[in-house]
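Weekly modeling sync, notes
Attendees: AB, CL, MP (scribe)

Item 1: holo prediction request
CL wants a bound-state model with MU-OXO-diiron before deciding which constructs to order. AB pointed out that an apo prediction alone won't tell us much about the pocket. Agreed to run with the ligand included and paste results into these notes for async review.

Input as submitted:
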Amino acid sequence: MSIVLRENIDWVGYVDWTVRDFHSYNTDRGATYNAYLVRDEKTALIDTVKAPFVNDLIQKVTTLTDMKSIRYIICNHAEPDHSGGLPRVIKECPNATLVCTKKCEAALGKHYDTSGWNFHIVKTGDTLSLGKWTLQFIETPMVHWPESMFTYIPEEKLLFSMDAFGQHYATIRRFDDEVSFQALMEEAKTYYANILMPYGKFIAATMDEVAKLDIDMIAPSHGLVFRSNIDKIIEAYKGWIVHKPKPKVLVIYDTMWNSTGEMAKAILEGASIPGVETDLIHVRLSNLTRIATDMLDAAGVAIGSSILNREMMPMIGATLIYLKGLRPSGKAGFAFGSYGWSQGGMRNLVDYMKALDWEIVRDTISSQFKPTPEILDECRAAGKQLAEKALELANNHAN
Ligand code: FEO
């Protein structure tokens, strides 16, 4: 069923209720791939859906118009969750021109046989008149890929924002004011942390462009359309872009025989001072998607591992590699863990933190086998030190 955004502007996307793994992103609430049909004197289709769901898209469109009446297909982003349906849609739309950036044309050519496709290349400031409505294009490099762009209809103050402001959230509802605001923002934050976090400076430039627009509605390529909480999602993005820290300490660890686990709990106890939020995360009982999301606004992070075969535990390794790519910044931290006869990979823990430019507040705490009462006291003191640093970082950012 299509959903009306404005009269003759409809959502024609696909709700993927059962997807739980989106290229390693845990989509606990499923996902949607949003496409929009704009019917005017000339009709435009904005984006498509993942390839397996293209029949559903075509079915929705054909309840509204003949595919042959589509004059423009806008490709805001070449990633296959949005472009996968293009080859089939282009076959069904013999009168359509594909509108995208120069880089998008090149990216599509690396995914599909585009030799017969009729491209119209646009750049920031270019427009296309559909009749009463205008499509205006804004290049948004690295939001999320180099070729990405936004499409804007000034007469309706309607922004098609592609991945930006998106959420992986399957629901029968299509608008932000029809669902739990808390759940919506949880998913928007999770999406930002896991998809967009490394591209903050590019997103900041895009936000400057967004600030120039008069916006009544933001229609992203995933999740709910914003019509009532536009200021709130833009404000949230402003904080996420700069990794604005909260007075929050995460203690992230893996453990073999619970020696590192005892140290982690002692650090948590020490960090639990007034005004500081704390969380204890056993990496094998959590997942990378949740960890990255919790990390986004944490000011202090302690990371610990037992040593297994002279290396850190495998899921701690996966966590650090994932974080290295996402580049959460502006944090303070330290490393800890237990070992048997080789401290081996423990040294690497702090190397990863340094590579992220985190402030290392103290030396690594290590324990040979079970931590002694003295080592646990040291862990409590280190937790307190980290919590005080987290308060300081959060206060500095607020001022
Ligand atoms: Fe939803 Fe970057 O694709």
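Recorded for review: The chain is about 35% helix and 25% strand.
Action items: CL to compare against the apo run; MP to circulate these notes.
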